[in-house]
């Protein structure tokens, strides 16, 4: 009867749990099972997974959950606060907590779970860490004891009594026991090897990812890096609360520098550890090239002084600098004064037009690596036109009938590259002097016979530059009378070196012939004295004669003389040469090609074309 009653109560409770499970799945399909503290022991009888534990009451819920690991059953305690829940798979022992759910392992260690973890790994159970159930001990068998024999007694007969049925009793539930907490241990800082001597501007990595905590492993650790000494770091590539820190080493002076870093790691209980020793890195200087700088130069006039200024150059490392200036464009070449100083100069050259000149500065800091810098500058040289300054020379004395040379070589030309034109003229004197090569620096002439001693003659030199600017100067000549001759023959001047085409008109010119006695009128006589064929001269008794250049088979030179005579019978003769140039013959094929077009032109046109194309006889008659 007692056994039947216990069975009845168990079935009733099971049916209640079944209905409660169905109701829960209908209302919240994601939760497989709900367990309350008062029915915790029944978890061992139900094969449900995963098991959901949710606190829907107002106070914390405490209970146990069992998992099978390697055929062994492990019991874990849990504590769920209001609003938190956890799901546990009793086959894989994997728990997923929403909120901070406290678990206690079979060894009594407690931890807060706020994510998904395997409880075995979470508590570090494995191998010898899993508690082993002790086998039941059987007490040693006692030998049977035989009581002493008593005389048989016959009790009075009593009617049989049935004891009243007792209701099944459920032993009271024992509250879970909280194990004594273990003392928290600080994290163990593990820092990977790092370089101890590094060049500036290099990226460095400090790796503390291997740091662990005795209780939490690599979980819930907080990192904090800080620079404690040295040249300040300006560029961090990762956050200072990262387990791996990357940064760029700062620039240091030529003597070098260093940095010191420190790491503090804190676990979930607030326990902190520092790196065992300061993280010290020596920083090596890398020479930085100097910075060349040249002051701006405004346009400069030719012949002015130009200053080249590189005093604004500097060296990032503060080292002393050396300078070398040089001219880049080869022409016009200038001389640079103090070319190995920061400030140099030169005189702007004379130029025909405005030009740009280029100069460069090399700056050195004395290092073989990155020890040089270069910069260039353009200088605009402006052409300023200045008039030349004529100088006809000093006054002089000459004897009559002597040869004199005038000299203008002391004429000054501020624009040295300009080509100056010279012109000498007579501006005073009672006799007209024939100046030969009057458009050169040093013309010459023959001093005439003068009527009286110390006759004065004046000559003027005019110099002109390409832009028309000019100046003049004069020189005086005093002529000494050394003979009884008072008259002078004329001087013939004839145009030389004529060249004409055959069949064209040629001119012989002696119009510039002069007589020292200004009022004297000259007569002229032209004649051919050399060359073939002979030609007929027209106006042979004038200063200018003419003739028709004969047709020749090849280039030919003719020679002519001209004599000029004054009223006193004094004369002078000069010779000139005329080159006659042959024109190639066109020949008969052209006549045949155009004969049809000539027909309508008449006899006159036919005659002209015949004269032009046919081979003509030699002599004066060949001229058209």
Written overview of the protein:
This protein is mainly beta and 624 residues long. It contains 4 helices and 34 strands. It is 8% helix and 33% strand. Strands 9, 11, 14, 15 and 16 form a 5-stranded mixed beta sheet that branches. Helix 3 runs antiparallel to helix 4. It starts with a helix and ends in an 11-residue tail after the last helix. The relative contact order is 0.05.
- Residue share in helices? under 10%
Rg estimate, integer Å: 66 Å
Number of domains: 6
Count of separate DSSP helical elements: 4
Which blocks of ≥5 consecutive residues have pLDDT under 50? Answer: 1-48, 132-136, 588-624
Number of strands: 34
- Which structural class fits the helix and strand makeup? mainly beta
Instruction: Tell me the overall shape.
Output: rod-shaped
| Gap from first CA to last CA | 172 Å
Overall mean pLDDT stands at 79
Largest sheet: 5 strands, mixed
Strand content: 25-35%
């Amino acid at each position: 009867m007692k056994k039947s009653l216990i069975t009845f109560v168990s079935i009733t409770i099971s049916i209640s749990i079944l209905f409660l499970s169905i109701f829960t799945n209908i209302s919240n399909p994601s939760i497989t099972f709900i367990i309350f503290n008062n029915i915790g022991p029944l978890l061992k009888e139900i094969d449900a997974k995963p098991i959901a534990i949710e606190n829907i009451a107002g106070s914390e819920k405490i209970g146990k959950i069992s998992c099978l690991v390697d055929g062994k059953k492990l019991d874990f305690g849990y504590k769920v606060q209001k609003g938190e829940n956890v799901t546990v798979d009793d086959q894989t022992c994997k728990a997923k907590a929403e909120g901070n759910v406290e678990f206690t392992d079979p060894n009594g260690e407690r931890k807060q779970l706020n994510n998904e973890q395997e409880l075995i790994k979470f508590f570090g159970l494995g191998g010898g860490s899993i508690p082993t159930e002790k086998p039941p001990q059987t007490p040693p068998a006692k030998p049977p004891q035989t009581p002493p024999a008593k005389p048989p007694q016959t009790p009075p007969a009593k009617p049989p009594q049935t004891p009243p049925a007792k209701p099944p009793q459920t032993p009271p539930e024992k509250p879970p026991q909280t194990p004594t907490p273990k003392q928290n241990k600080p994290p163990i800082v593990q820092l990977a090897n790092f370089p101890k001597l590094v060049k500036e501007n290099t990226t460095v990595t400090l790796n503390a990812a291997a740091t662990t905590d005795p209780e939490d492993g690599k979980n819930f650790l907080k990192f904090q890096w800080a620079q404690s000494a040295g040249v300040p770091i300006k560029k961090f590539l990762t956050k200072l609360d990262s387990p791996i820190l990357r940064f760029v080493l700062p620039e240091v002076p030529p003597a070098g520098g260093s940095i010191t870093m420190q790491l503090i790691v804190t676990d979930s209980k607030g326990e902190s550890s520092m790196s065992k020793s300061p993280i010290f890195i020596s920083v090596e200087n890398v020479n930085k090239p100097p910075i060349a700088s040249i002051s701006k130069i405004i346009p400069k006039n030719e012949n002015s002084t130009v200053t080249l200024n590189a005093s604004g150059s500097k060296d990032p490392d503060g080292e002393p600098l050396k300078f070398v200036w040089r001219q880049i464009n080869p022409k016009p070449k200038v001389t640079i004064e103090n070319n190995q100083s920061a400030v140099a100069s030169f005189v702007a050259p004379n130029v025909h037009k405005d030009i740009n000149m280029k100069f460069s500065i090399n700056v050195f800091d004395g290092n073989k690596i990155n020890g040089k810098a270069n910069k260039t500058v353009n200088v605009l040289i402006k052409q300023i036109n200045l008039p030349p300054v004529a100088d006809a020379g000093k006054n002089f004395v000459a004897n009559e009938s002597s040869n004199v040379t005038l000299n203008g070589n002391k004429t000054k030309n501020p624009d040295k590259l300009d080509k100056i034109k010279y012109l000498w003229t007579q501006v005073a004197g009672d006799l007209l002097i024939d100046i030969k090569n009057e458009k050169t620096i040093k013309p010459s002439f023959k001093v005439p016979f003068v009527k009286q001693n110390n006759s004065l003659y004046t000559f003027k030199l005019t110099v002109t530059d390409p832009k028309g600017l000019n100046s003049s100067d004069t020189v005086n000549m005093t002529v000494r009378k050394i003979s009884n001759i008072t008259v002078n023959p004329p001087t013939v001047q004839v145009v030389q070196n004529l060249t004409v085409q055959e069949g064209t008109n040629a001119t012989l010119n002696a119009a510039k012939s002069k007589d020292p006695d200004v009022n004297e009128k000259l007569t002229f006589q032209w004649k051919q004295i050399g060359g073939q064929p002979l030609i007929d001269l027209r106006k042979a008794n004038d200063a200018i004669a003419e003739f028709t250049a004969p047709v020749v088979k090849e280039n030919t030179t003719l020679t002519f003389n001209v004599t000029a005579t004054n009223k006193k019978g004094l004369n002078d003769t000069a010779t000139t040469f005329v080159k006659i140039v042959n024109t190639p013959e066109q020949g008969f094929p052209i006549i045949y090609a155009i004969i049809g077009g000539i027909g309508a032109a008449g006899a006159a046109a036919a005659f002209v074309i015949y004269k032009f194309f046919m081979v003509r006889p030699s002599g004066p008659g060949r001229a058209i």
